[in-house]
Every structure is written in structure tokens, then in C-alpha cells.
Model the fold of this input.
Amino acid sequence: MKIIKSIRKTISMKIDEAWELIVKAPLFVSKEKIDEFINKNKTWVEKKKQLVLDRMKKYVDWEKFMYFWEEYELKFSWESNIIEFNWKTFYLNKKHKKNTSLLFTNFYKKEAMFYIKNRINFISWKYELKFNKLTISSAKTRWWSCSSNKNISFSYRLIMAPIKTIDYVIVHELAHLKEMNHSKNFWKLVEEMMKWLYPWDYKIHKKWLKDNGNKMIF
Done:
């Protein structure tokens, strides 16, 4: 649980994209009052906790994992390599079952780097935008970032999203190389770059991330 105090009149709470309980409260409110507020909303909190449990991976046969927003089943086998994927099924050697979570993370990171590196190089070349360094992180809530020294980072979890949404995120960060803010000029540049890639409004992908981001966290 995280408590954030600020100049406000009421207490509110939410579950963020990392499934952490965030409580926002006025500066003067005591810890006892905050606990009382949480207890009054205990049913809501428990329902959200259950959603977390339901989303947690069990790493068993036939469980499904997302890749480019398609679901593929996992199958354990003695014959397969450590981890294999054939665009139909994920195969994982039973000898490495205890490391399944790490193996999936490494698989996603590798795939994310391959796809994002190719796309960001292509789009940055088109718009003559130069970045310094590309990294793939394990971030749960911050899908992307662009530093003042032009280092760009993306969460590997993006590889679970639709391709067009991933491209939107790439465009978003490249636009920050020109506009290190979210001004009208920034969004105008994002719109221009996205329309060059696809004939759809970038806001569709912005909303998609807001609505579906937590589905890529487990």
C-alpha cells in the first residue's frame, strides 16, 4: 500500500497498474482515519485483490500467455529446448519448470528488443530523430521513458500488446526527442508520425493502453 498526501479535501483509493493499493489523502488526515476509510471499503479492496490472484500465472500445461495480443498455450515437454515458440504453442522443457517465470521474462525481453529496435531505428530514420541508447526494462507501471540525454527505455511487457499500439508507444517516445513535454506541438507531432504509419487516430492506442495495460502484468 502506498499513501500519498497532498492538498485535497477527500480520501480516495485505487489499484494501480502494478496492482498496488494507492490511497490519496489530505495532508492533515491521520493514519487512523486512513485505516478506517480502507476498512469501510474492505469489500472493494478484497474484490480487487481477488482479481490479482486470478491474474497470477500458475505456469501449468495449457495456461495461456500473450504475445502481440494473441494468446498461446504453454506445454511442458521433456523433448523441447529450454523454451520454444512456434506461433502456436510455447514449449518448455520440464527440467526447467521451476524457472518458468524467469524464462518467460527473458523470452519477452529478447522479443521486445528485437521488434522495438527495428521499428525505432526505422521510424527515427524517417523523421531524422537521433536517440542515444535503447534499453528494455521490467517496469510494471511505466511503459516507456525518455531522458534528457536521449536515452529511451521500454517495458518488455509491451511485446504483449498489439503491434500498432507498440508502434504508438515508440512514436510517443521519439516525439519527446523534439518536444520534452506534452504540449500541443508534441501531440501534433505524434499525430503526424502515427498517420504516416497507420490511418487511425493515435488516441485509439493511447486509450487502449489505459484500458488494457493491467492485463499485461502478472
Residues 3 and 95 are 43 Å apart (CA to CA).
